[in-house]
């Protein structure tokens, strides 16, 4: 028969056991926060200081050097080489993630291409193109480099046309991005992955901690002592669910505070719904941890 007094006695016993081991208690509280902090630090940020081999055949360099000045120096580290073969070999050897090649008459060809517009011959077009040799074994780095070089050329072209007295808007893409329906125009990978990572951490952290605590209690003989004292299995489980629920609530507060207030991950909705979803997901992890502990005899 269910007895609330026995449940409260077990709950107090579980609480005292947690308080006696302060390092483990702190580990329980801060493990999800540490995991989400590592995620925000390591995942989703644009890579920086990417080495790129540059072979500029122009002598002296003209518009090619002007273009290179528009390349984001925080993302790309330009490493000059004396020949195209050396620049490409640097990519093959893993010393650079890409190689840029400017022809010897790049400035003249680019200017001729602007003047002749649609009547430029193939040689002029070929000489005015920047040759890019990419290492796409890492797609994230490859796409970041592509975006960086495209944005740099757009800024360079707008600046060049402004100097010549032309409207710089003529070199922008003829597509206007209006206000987006959902999300943002330039979302970060951290923002995109954060909801799934939060749910995953909330579930598996509580699963592991609940399963481990019950297995250790059985191994120490506390389960048998409780059963001998007249406690039934349902009361035993309820007391542990109560204990783990309190631990879970504190975990969620620290984890969500780390995510949204320390690392400033955007939240576009009421925080109560974020906490509720995360809490119930963690509660499901508690139940799964109870199930695992019933199948395992030791750690």
Automatic annotation (TrEMBL):
Subcellular location: Cell membrane
Pfam (any one): ABC2_membrane_3
Molecular-function annotations in GO: ABC-type transporter activity
Superkingdom, natural source: Eukaryota
Keywords (A to Z) from UniProt: Cell membrane, Membrane, Transmembrane, Transmembrane helix
Native source species: Euroglyphus maynei
Membrane topology: Multi-pass membrane protein
InterPro entries hit by this protein: ABC-2_transporter_component, ABC2_TM
Record keyword Cell cycle present: no
GO CC annotation terms, alphabetical: plasma membrane
Coiled-coil blocks: none
Protein name: ABC transporter G family member 20-like protein
Predominant place of localization: membrane
Domain ABC-2 type transporter transmembrane span(s) in chain numbering: 25-298
Membrane-spanning parts: 24-43, 192-216, 237-263, 275-297
């Amino acid at each position: 028969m269910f007895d609330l007094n026995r449940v409260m006695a077990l709950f107090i016993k579980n609480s005292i056991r947690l308080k006696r081991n302060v390092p483990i208690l702190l580990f329980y509280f801060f493990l999800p926060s540490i995991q989400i902090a590592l995620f925000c630090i390591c995942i989703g940020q644009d890579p920086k200081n990417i080495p790129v081999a540059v072979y500029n055949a122009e002598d002296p360099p003209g518009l090619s050097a002007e273009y290179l000045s528009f390349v984001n120096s925080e993302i790309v580290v330009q490493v000059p080489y004396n020949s195209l073969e050396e620049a490409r070999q640097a990519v093959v050897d893993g010393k650079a993630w890409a190689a840029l090649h400017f022809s010897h008459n790049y400035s003249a060809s680019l200017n001729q291409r602007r003047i002749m517009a649609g009547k430029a011959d193939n040689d002029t077009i070929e000489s005015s193109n920047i040759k890019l040799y990419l290492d796409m074994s890492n797609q994230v780095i490859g796409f970041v480099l592509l975006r960086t070089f495209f944005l740099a050329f757009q800024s360079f072209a707008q600046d060049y046309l402004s100097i010549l007295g032309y409207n710089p808007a003529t070199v922008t893409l003829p597509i206007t991005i209006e206000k987006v329906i959902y999300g943002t125009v330039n979302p970060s990978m951290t923002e995109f992955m954060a909801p799934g990572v939060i749910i995953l951490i909330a579930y598996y952290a509580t699963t592991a901690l609940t399963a481990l605590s019950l297995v250790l209690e059985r191994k120490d003989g506390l389960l048998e002592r409780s059963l001998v004292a007249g406690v039934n299995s349902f009361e035993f489980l309820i007391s542990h669910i109560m204990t783990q629920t309190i631990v879970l609530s504190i975990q969620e507060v620290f984890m969500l505070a780390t995510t949204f207030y320390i690392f400033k991950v955007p939240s576009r909705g009421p925080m109560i719904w974020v906490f509720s979803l995360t809490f119930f997901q963690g509660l499901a992890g508690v139940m799964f941890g109870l199930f695992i502990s019933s199948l395992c005899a030791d750690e």
